[in-house]
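Question (not urgent): is this output format expected?
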Amino acid sequence: MKIKHTALPWDDTSRAALRSRLGEWFRAAGRDLPWRRTLDPYAVMVSEFMLQQTQVATVIDFFNRWMLRFPDFEALAAANEAEVLHAWQGLGYYSRARNLHRAAQRVVADHRGRLPADVALIGLLPGVGRYTAGAIGSFAFDLATPAVDANIARVLARLLDLQEPVDTARGQQILWAAAEGLLPGRRGREHTSALMELGALVCLPTRPRCAECPVREFCTAKNPELLPRKKPRRKAVPMLERCAWIVEDESILLEQQTGPRWRGLWKLPSLSEEQQGELLLETTYAFTHHRVTLQVYAGAAPGQVAGEQRWFSKGELPQAAFASAHGRALRVLADQTGFAVPGFLDASL
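Got this back:
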C-alpha cells in the first residue's frame, strides 16, 4: 500500500517551515565539497558512484585524480577496463567502476556524450539505481525528485519515529514516500543536499547532536539514538584463502581474477590445500558477509604458467590493478623481502 503524503506528521505549512529551516542551515553549515562546485552531470555521476559505500573523506582525493585522468564521458568511454580499474583501486567494490565505465559508453553511444535531464532515462544506465538516479537528477539538473541514501534514511526515520526496519520493503516504501512528500515544488538540489548533510554532520548514527539540529521541533523520535531500526545482521562466515609469493629474476608471478566481484584485477597466485611452503603472511579482510583469512606462502616458479597467470616486471607492477587485500599483502611482502619497486610501495590501496 502506498503511503500518502497526508499520512506524514506535518501539514503543508509545517513542511514548508521544515524545508526553510533546513535550507538556511545548509547554506550556513554545508561543507565545501569538490562535486558541489560544479553542475557538470558527468562530475556529479562520478561522485555518486564513488560515494556508494565509501566515506566522503576517502572519496575526495580519488575524485580529484579521476577527473584529471577522465574529465568527461568521452574520455572515460574511450578508456579500456584495465585503465579504469587501475584508477579505481583503493575504493573497492569494483563493480561500481565497471558500471560507471559502461554507463559512460552508453551516454556517448545513445546520448552523444550528454547525460539526459530525465531521471527515468538516467535510471536505465548501468549501475544506476533509484537513489543514484534521484541524486544525479537533483544535483546535476536541480530537479525536485526524491533520493534516499543512508544519511537521508536516518534523518527521515528519526523525524517520523519510524519503528519499521528501514532495510525492509515496507520501510523503504515509507521512507521514499516521506522523501517525496517533503520535496519543494522545484529546485531540489539544495533540499536534497541539506537532508544528506544533516545526516552526515548532525543526525549522526551514534550520539546524534539533537541540540544542534535545525529541524528538531519537527522531529517525533522518542529515542533517536535507537533509530533507524534494521533487520538482524547476518553472522560473518569464515573463509580461508591460500596464495603464493613467487619471485624470480626481478619479476613476480600474479594471477588475474575472473569472478564477477574482482574480474580483471590481479592477485597473488592461488594455492591448493595440498601445496605448502613457508608461511610469510597472514591477514584478514571482509567482503559481503564473509570474513576471509588470507595466507601467503613462499612458492617456487611453476614449470608452466597457467592461462590466467603472467610474470610482472618491477616496471609493470605500478600499472597493475589489484584487489585491495592482495595489493596490501603484496606491498607488505615486497617491503619485507626487499622486492623494492619505485612508486609502488607508497601507492594507496
